[in-house]
Amino acid sequence: MQPLENYMRTRRSAVSVTLEEPGPDSDEIRRIVTMATRVPDHGKLVPWRIVLWSMSQRETMHRQLLTLLDSLPDIDDKPKKRASTDKLLHAPCVMAVISTAAEHPKIPVWEQTLSAGAVCMNALIGSNACGYEAQWLTAWYVYADEARDILELQDGEKIAGIIHIGSTNTPKTERPRPQIEDILTMKDD
Ligand SMILES: Cc1cc2nc3c(=O)[nH]c(=O)nc-3n(C[C@H](O)[C@H](O)[C@H](O)COP(=O)(O)O)c2cc1C
Asked: Best substitution site from 138, 141, 164, 174 to test ligand 1's pocket, by max atoms within 8 Å of Cβ?
């Protein structure tokens, strides 16, 4: 089996709360982002951007998001949402992949959004290529209109993924995968 096939057949995400130092330095972050953004992009619109959140920014956002969460009256399961907010503070490196997809005369928004998803996936693979573990997360605040200012999102932008990157000694176990027969249809001639 070729090394790339072996990697693709066995790769797993990490669990963000287990991620610790070392994380990528600024040169490695540039390399990861270079790999992450080498994705198909119909119309070459570059419909995404990436923001690296420093730890002090994450601490500020974390505080603001918890205050927001407490102030929201009609929101269920606040303890779980608090825990998902706390995940901002674990990994040494956290970057947001932001979809900037917008109406375009030729390229559907759906295709631009898919390209942002590809950036997230490539960020995981690029992190692994640089010797790090990574996980793609979202959280309640990604979908909360009230959190948009805290996340510094421009009109129309959406977070496609929050990529947590670092190192871990926690072994990765296999998880159930779909049977190929269940998801692949091959039509006979
Ligand atoms: C868009 C997106 C959002 C996700 N958000 C979360 C999340 O908020 N919390 C979580 O535990 N997993 C989340 N996951 C799943 C994790 O990425 C998880 O690590 C992954 O499914 C494990 O699969 P893998 O080991 O095959 O990469 C999300 C996945 C995707 C694609």
From this structure: 138
